[in-house]
Specification:
single chain, 196 residues, alpha/beta, Dihydrofolate Reductase, subunit A, two-stranded antiparallel sheet, 6 helices, 28% helix, DHFR-like_dom_sf, transmembrane helix, Dihydrofolate reductase family protein, 5-amino-6-(5-phosphoribosylamino)uracil reductase activity, transmembrane
Length: 196
């Protein structure tokens, strides 16, 4: 069975975005300049290469996630182009209750129950699946126990108030630490496996 991997940047105090939705505190906020350490860039690219399907919320898709990475993939002079190419080539699954058809290339819609849709996707052949966000979508996946592996990129910034992703968890979410890697920029990647 395929794994569902969450890759998400968090502040050191556990927020995925500021209260107003801003990610300006992130070391890399998905702009044209990839300001991460080369080793973190390589690790991040290897992670996306290990998946052939990306799960997205309707909101994230409509905000331009797919188009952004297609544009980055086309610019081979940009160091993000290889990473972006993996996103472009992966099948995207957009979870929605409102859209009737996909307007994006290599993208299908999932319109049923979240848990049932994800469980069905996990049973399909292929590589692992990855989810990048947004906050509400990821919170729902975590609360339903659907994330198998967490790759949490901890930024060296505390923001005080913001949007958490673990706020819908009922009881205790048991995780096992697989790896912890620190990078010169102050970023730390914590890799956990769901222990449930």
């Amino acid at each position: 069975m395929r794994k569902l991997i969450l890759q998400m940047q968090l502040s050191i105090d556990g927020f995925a975005a500021a209260a107003n939705g801003s990610g300006s505190w992130m070391v890399w906020s998905y702009g044209d300049d990839w300001t991460w350490d080369p080793a973190l860039q390589a690790d991040h690219t290897a992670l996306i290469a290990s998946a052939d399907e990306i799960l997205l919320s309707r909101k994230m898709a409509e905000e331009g996630f797919i188009g952004h990475w297609e544009k980055m993939a086309a610019n081979t002079a940009n160091p993000q182009s290889v990473f972006a190419g993996h996103i472009r080539d992966a099948r995207k699954v957009v979870f929605t209750h409102t859209l009737k058809e996909s307007g994006w290339p290599n993208t299908i819609l999932a319109t049923g129950d979240l848990t049932e849709e994800v469980k069905a996707l996990k049973k399909q052949p292929g590589k692992n699946m990855i989810v990048f966000g947004g906050v509400s979508f990821v919170s729902a996946l975590i609360a339903a126990g659907l994330i198998d592996e967490y790759h949490l990129i901890i930024n060296p910034a505390a923001i005080g108030r913001g949007m958490p992703v673990f706020d819908k968890v009922q009881g205790i979410l048991g995780l096992s630490l697989v790896n912890a890697t620190a990078y010169p920029s102050g970023m730390v990647v914590l890799q956990y496996r769901y222990a449930g």
